[in-house]
Amino acid sequence: MTGVPEPVGESGPAAPLLELRGVGKSYGTIDALRGVDLVADAGQVTCVLGDNGAGKSTLIKIISGLHRHTAGELLVNGRPTSFASPRDAQDAGIATVYQDLALAPLMSVWRNFFLGHEITRRPFGRLDIARMIRTTDEALRGMGIEIADLDRPVGSLSGGQRQVVAIARALHFGARVLILDEPTAALGVKQSGVVLRYLARARDAGVAVVFVTHNPHHAWLVGDHFVVLALGRVVLDGSTADLTLDQLTAEMAGGAELTELRHELGA
Ligand SMILES: Nc1ncnc2c1ncn2[C@@H]1O[C@H](COP(=O)(O)OP(=O)(O)OP(=O)(O)O)[C@@H](O)[C@H]1O
Ligand SMILES: [Mg+2]
After folding, report:
1. What's the whole-model pTM score?
2. Given phi > 0 = left and psi -120 to 50 = alpha, else beta, which region is 28?
3. Which domains does the chain have, with CATH numbers?
């Protein structure tokens, strides 16, 4: 992190784990995000929806330390924060599972599980392979995942299994905010169900989940809060208490606000 975050009046147990206030991001002359507000609370699933080019990935990259925002504030536990690198975001308890880059396909399941967290043995610092395999097995079984041979390359698992291993890994290493970029985009109904169940498990374990998706039905199955982006702006922000699935679906399909916005921006 760049410098020690300054404590602010709102910090304390009631502050959300993660908050974006008026966040903007310009790539040269392109405004990918403008004035975006987002809150991710512990034990809640916040869904970020939007059409192609809406700014979803840009938002994720800012939260996970890959890009810096050019306007607004990012707060972690109520403290203004700026991540200089993905490592900073990880150190703050933020784990991101990318759709395709979640795991290294040629490496074994256990090796992927411990990537960046390898256990070594004293005094020579050799890898403690037996312990890593055992721990991976325990962690996956603890989450109800059965993978018979943990020496298998991750690339030989199904898309759903890969996502679930990546989620289990993030939880095992203490993620408090879990960001998933389109985890069900390439999956069929059954595999999507597998991933959505684990996403709900993470939420039930008290993790703040940020679920990025094109699919309002998937969002509705697990979401507590919904933020719809269009052309980099928030066009809908609501929860299960004040929204219906029909409204969410209509907004995704291109609601009145989107048409108005296109008009205003001349897009
Ligand atoms: N590195 C970049 N340089 C310049 N423009 C970019 C860059 N990354 C994204 N953009 C632009 O910013 C806007 C938002 O893109 P972003 O990838 O965040 O959208 P998205 O909602 O993730 O879209 P998709 O659903 O297609 O993944 C788009 O206009 C895109 O062309
Ligand atoms: Mg994207």
Report:
1. 0.84
2. left
3. 18-106+159-265 (3.40.50.300), 107-152 (no CATH)
